[in-house]
Amino acid sequence: TPIFIPELQGGWFSTYKLQHTFDDVYNFYGDAFTRTAYESVLAQGCTMASIYMVYGGTNWGTVGDVDGYTSYDYSACIREYGYTSSRMRELRLGINFIRSFSDLFTKTERVKNPNVSTSIKNVFNLQRKSVMKNVKLGDEVLFSFFRNFNEQQNPVFQVYVKYKEGQRREQTFSLRCYLQYKTSFIALGNYTTITGLKLIFSTLPIYLRVIQDRVNEIWIVPVNDVGELAFQGEVTVDGNLIPSIRKVGHAIHIVSFNDVGGFARIRSADSSGDLYILALRNESLSTLHAIFEEPYWAKTNNDTNISHSPSIVTWGIQDVYFDSSNFILETQYGDQEHDITILFSREPSKHVRFQSHPTYPLPFISKKQFTAGEKTSEIHLVPKLVRWRSRITDFNNLEWKIIDLKNGGPVENYYASGHILYNTRFSSNYSSSKVYLSINMRHRCTIFVNGRFVGGHTTFSRQLFFPGSKNGPELFKSLGGKKYDITQFLHPNGDEEKNSVIILVENWGINRQAVIFNDCRNPRGIISSNIDGLIKETNLTWSICGVDLRKLDNPFNTSGIPDENKNLEWNESEKGISNYGVIPNDGIKWWSFRFSHPMESKFKDILNAPLRLVLQGAFTSYIFLNGTIIGRYYGNGDCAQHDYYLMDGLLKFGDEENQITMMVYSWETVNPEEIIVEIRGWEIDDVKKTGNLIKLKKGVDEDIEFEVKPWIVRKELIPLT
């Protein structure tokens, strides 16, 4: 105690053999999922939580375990390529509330008999009261947790509040509340502002509290004409928000506002300062940033700072970082974001053109227009792919080592990343009209006999203990094999030439369960193999080859194919793989092309335009970007990923060309017209802010109501002093 959750789910993973993408996962859980989960565990008394994942990532190279493929986007709050999704924007609102009330929320106890109830079921969760040392008995601030799981999905309901004023008899009054289905918020109650106002209860969500000069208090709320604020005692309200005030009982005054953005100032006769209400529309709330000064990390003894009150608040753009050393705001904004609003107690810099805000004409709020918005029109994020080359891996020229197949081979030779190759040769003397090759391996094999493709299969399971299991040790290692009829690929019976079998095996990684489920000794490569139909005198000798990880600076940056970095002869090709196609009998074929980054160097400091590699076609590929593996592609259906993030730190700009090399093979013939290889920007849903890729289907372009263009971020520095 107190409850600590080190891995609060902020999305979900996807794995091999599943056909849904992370965009599908995002749509399944929705925008409010992470915030609702976060506020639900806070209601249970959790005071420390790490959300997994907040920022989706990339399993570059072979670093991922068998549970996940290249993309680890996780449908996270921040998507793999850096986009702040609606899920992050929702979560940020919940975090801002808790952070700005942390002086009261850090230590709470559950209220056994809450003073609130609701007119409909499944909207009120729990209530907690602050038990911080600075809170007097009877003055405990109340935090009421609402989440709308009502079966009728009603968004509007009544909240009944029990309240006892002084020595008077307890009374119950009602407040209107608006909460969309499957969303949540934390309501504030029994709270006294720094100005002396007593808030009995609020069904109007308060997303941020700002203490200004220890005199005034500011609440940021949504534009909402349903939610209400109940105060003890008479209050006066002015500002450009149109208030409605109703009195209940002896001294309860309930305030609500019209459905517009703006501000209100609330005072009472005894107030020592002003309470400001700033009502923001959803598009502004989705970009609300609060910058808190952390005294521990800042090593400051400045008593004028209140750690639970933000020093700077902004809205209007998607990403803001405050450089406290230089007092500069580092901003990033998209196509539809034209200005930033800054709430700052100090007088803004005279070197920056700030304006007063027409909707919030207050001395501590400024607005700045951005001027760099037209630069993106000069960028076309589909570069031309040039200088295509290809070559084929010659299995005969690889360095083979003889092994005892029954006693391993891959780990003993440090072939533990990517692919492993096996070879056996036998005479053309058969005892049967049919010859079968049986193979049991982990996790994926491709078989060639006498230079011709035979077939391939995958042994993988999402079930505990099963063959190729992604969870826990395997109990049935002998299962998971497959038998192939190789008769048609063999030399004629009695032929002097020996037959050669090449088996390419790829391992997707070692699982990661702990203690009694430690499966680090789960099998790799071939577990067993046999050929039926040969004469009794035949003794099969197996050889192996791969990449010795001890010789690499980075053990995860290899396909496992020994000739991947050798200086071999390449054949020039005008149009590349999409003109040639993929032929299984080619075995392993390498393709290489170059491209220039579509963003000119002069824009590098003011724009960020993430790129992706798009692949279509039923082939397998390991993808190298400038010498680093950034993706593993399985177009046959073993993996749903077709879009690969090209990490900014690996890309070259200006006159330097980038090179992508692809190790390619296939289990079926892939015709040229079935193949797509292109580099594009991330054309995403920037309207609903999901960050999901927009997939245009042929013939329905006219149904798209918005322009499909890549996501580009502009960057600008704003000095505040």
The percent range for helix content is: under 10%
Structural class: mainly beta
> Cα distance, first to last residue?
44 Å
What is the CA-atom radius of gyration, in angstroms?
32 Å
Give the beta-strand count.
Answer: 47
Number of helices: 7
Biggest pleated sheet: 8 strands, antiparallel
β-strand percent reads 35-45%
Dominant shape: elongated
Low-confidence segments: 698-702
The averaged pLDDT comes out at 91
Query: Which strand order does the major sheet show?
Result: 5-7-8-11-12-15-18-17
Catalytic activity: Hydrolysis of terminal non-reducing beta-D-galactose residues in beta-D-galactosides
Protein name: beta-galactosidase
Family: Belongs to the glycosyl hydrolase 35 family.
Keywords: Glycoprotein, Glycosidase, Hydrolase, Signal
Can you walk me through this structure?
The chain has 721 residues and is mainly beta. Helix content is 7%, strand content 36%. The strands form 11 sheets. An 8-stranded antiparallel sheet has the order 5-7-8-11-12-15-18-17. The protein has a 6-stranded antiparallel sheet with strand order 38-28-39-45-42-43, with no helix packed on it. It has a 6-stranded antiparallel sheet with strand order 29-37-30-35-32-33, with no helix packed on it. A hairpin with a 5-residue loop joins strand 11 (184-192) and strand 12. The radius of gyration is 32 Å and the shape is elongated. InterPro entries: BetaGal_jelly_roll_dom (IPR025300), Galactose-bd-like_sf (IPR008979), GH (IPR017853), Gly_Hdrlase_35_cat (IPR031330), Glycoside_Hdrlase_35 (IPR001944). Residues 564-664 form the Beta-galactosidase jelly roll domain. Residues 1-93 form the Glycoside hydrolase 35 catalytic domain. Keywords: Glycoprotein, Glycosidase, Hydrolase, Signal. Its EC number is 3.2.1.23.
